[in-house]
Amino acid sequence: MPTAKNDCFMPRENISIIGFPMDLGSGRRGVDMGPSALRIANLERRLRNLGYKVEDLGDIKIKIMEKQRVGDPKLRYLNEVLKTSLTLARTVEKVLDKGNFPLCIGGDHSMAIGTIAGIAAHCKKNKKSLGVIWIDAHADMNTHETTPSGNIHGMPLAASMGLGHPSLVNFYGIKPKLKPEHCALIGIRSVDIEERKNIRKLNPAVYTMSDVDKLGIHRVISRVLKQFRQQVDHIHVSFDVDSVDPSIAPGVGTPVKGGLNYREAHLLMETIAECGCMSSLEVAEVNPILDVHNTSAVFAAELIASSMGQRIL
Ligand SMILES: NC(=[NH2+])NCCC[C@H](N)C(=O)O
Ligand SMILES: [Mn+2]
Ligand SMILES: [Mn+2]
């Protein structure tokens, strides 16, 4: 095992799967079916085959979109996002408190508001520092003031670092939940003009696709892991499936050309597994309506397995 700051880096035996069938945070329907698609892709069996004990806690209850009001156009479905994020945060916190590994499957990326809140609460109680590796085509660092869409899935990372609408920033009573120096973004290739200013203001480490092209994905993730292993106690990986190129993962709500290729994505996750230092994982934005025979969900399930120790040999 690699040396670690404390024992939270030891691999956890028990995985708790939490489904978050939410699409109110995104502009397009369908990601609410992501958790089902991942389960159909045999997620649980893949993890059991790796030797883990797995419990599936089922889905967080979410009221269907057709019955909701959009509300503020700059913070679409805010109330529903807050309400459901609260249940998610409590569930994640409980799972961590009992020593299990939370695997949250979405759902749109607004789920990170709840996931990171629950993790931050657990870390605060146990005097652990939190690091987040955000793998995404997008930075998700908009606020209600900079968003071009009003979709909350474009805001969770900024909000977690203390920038954005007070209801998101103060959510779950911890503010900020994450320090920018303990945050790294990887795979970025679509940032809104105003969103750039937020990135500059907070200044987390950002590895764009150009950086991945130049350095190689292995060097990028190794650099981040090396730094985080020395500086934080809990590493959370937030994986947006649209980080991968749409040619291999077409089933996502907001596809952007020029993403990680098949092997880059696996190598990224395999390197995270080798480090043995991931303490929680969430996978967001699988959209079965836009998918082709569930290939994106199967790919996402494969990537989850790679991040949990699946090896070629
Ligand atoms: N989690 C995601 N897929 N986010 C996409 C965000 C797209 C765009 N930046 C927006 O704010 O609307
Ligand atoms: Mn995202
Ligand atoms: Mn994205």
Automatic annotation (TrEMBL):
Enzyme Commission designation: 3.5.3.1
Protein name: Arginase
Gene Ontology molecular function: arginase activity; manganese ion binding
Pathway(s) the chain acts in: Nitrogen metabolism; urea cycle; L-ornithine and urea from L-arginine: step 1/1
Catalytic activity annotation: L-arginine + H2O = urea + L-ornithine
Family the entry assigns: Belongs to the arginase family.
One GO biological process term: arginine metabolic process
Gene3D superfamilies registered for this protein in UniProt: Ureohydrolase domain (3.40.800.10)
